[in-house]
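Can you give me the bound-state structure? Components:
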Amino acid sequence: MPAYRPPRIAASEITPERFFLDRRSFLAAAGGLVLGGASVAHAAALKPSTSPYKVDETLTPEKDVTSYNNFYEFGTGKGDPAANSQAFKPTPWTVKVDGLVGKPREFGLEELLAFPLEERPYRMRCVEAWSMVIPWVGFPLASLLDKVEPLGSAKYIAFETVVRPEEMPGQSGYFQPLPWPYREGLRLDEARHPLTILAVGLYGKTLPNQNGAPIRLVVPWKYGFKGIKSIVRISLTETAPPCTWNLAAPDEYGFYANVNPAVDHPRWSQATENRIGEGGFFGSNRRDTLPFNGYADDVAGLYAGMDLRVNF
Amino acid sequence: MMTLVPALPKRFHGPSVWALYALGFIPAAWAFYLGATGQLPGNAVKEFEHLLGLWALRFLVATLTVTPLRDLFDLNWLRYRRALGLLAFYYVLMHFLAYMLLDQMLRVPAILADIARRPFITIGMAALLMLIPLALTSNNLSIRKLGPRWNKLHRLVYVIAAAGALHFSMAVKVVGPEQMLYIALVALLLTWRAVRTPFLRWKRQRTAVVRSRPATQKAAG
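Here's the bound-state model for the whole set.
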């Protein structure tokens, strides 16, 4: 297990003021969430504690984080998810956890929101060579796994996105870009890594539909497409599970999909990235991409001895 | 056959071509204005690049539509073809300049690596290079000087249009309706070139038959 890096500065110094919300307003918001319906369509406030993880870079403006998205269930354009996800109902919601676990069960959204929530500002690197810095709110996936007691035979974890053609326009009609449900997977040690979280919010509020409401995976050292959205099922398996993009184009999207500037995508270089919301039209917003998206100290040990050009 | 639109008075022919140039540059100017004032969403430079490329493809399709319109509907818009073709060239050039200057910030090694290693960029670059001789020989002097060779040279536009549609399709992760539309349009327009010779022969024969009939019959028919 790699070392868990201790906090470099006091939590109180990095928690933005807006997160010091009145406990009562949080409870009211959470109440609204549980009661469901219309109130959730508008983001409800969450009250995360700060986490030992931080980034030294400027956060990407919230309007970019919530308007420039890849979520093909709502369309393939970057603006489609924000434009086409209004009818999506993230409540009520349950996540089924099954497979090689001692205690398979379903988690209701209220249970998921009851996990101790942390703010995790992470870099997000898309395989299309753009990036953001997003203040996620979530909890370690490992805490959820502890509750279902994975069996010794479990080596991998599989995730599935909801299928609701009536609410997700990309899942109906003649031009469906991918086969549904969207699937993703991790090795179990990757899933249990403290950096790997299930996010339920961003910028101190519940996730907007276009960002994967009500719950999504965030694995900051991997390309964004590994961060499966609107999860309804998590299964522990013995063999590597099928992953949507990997199946669609195995030479372009590997199972691991670790951010790696040295391994190009066949159609674009991964050496640099465009930071969304920075630089403007004439200034350069292009920066060098870091191995494991800058999280090499934390996660490189997971891949010791592996050829990352082969296991890309 | 009847013409579909009323003929433009001859004195407006010249000005209408200049109006087309002026109109043709509006999408680029508008996109540049939006980008420079921070009004293009998300990745502004990529969006600008994409819009220029899309309009280049549109002008290429428009250029290739002039001939079938004349063949099928007797609509003679030949006077606009040079402007449409040159607009396509200028848009491809601006598309490349936006990539080189705004996107890559003149990182020459990265640009060369992209051109060499990414098939869709190689194809796009080849299309730009092929457009250069066509743009250079688009003047009346070249047409006169090159004679029949001019026609032969300018058939390169078929390859360029196919390359453009391919470039667009290969640049995206999933080929969607928009890419399919351009592939279909280019395929249709190129197929027309293959079948137009027999069609024109048939059309000429039919016209000849109609003309040879007595006037009364013609009126009745």
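A couple of observations. Residues 15-24, 31-41 of chain A have pLDDT under 50 and may be disordered. Residues 11-126+136-247 of chain A form a domain with the Sulfite Oxidase; Chain A, domain 2 fold (CATH 3.90.420.10).
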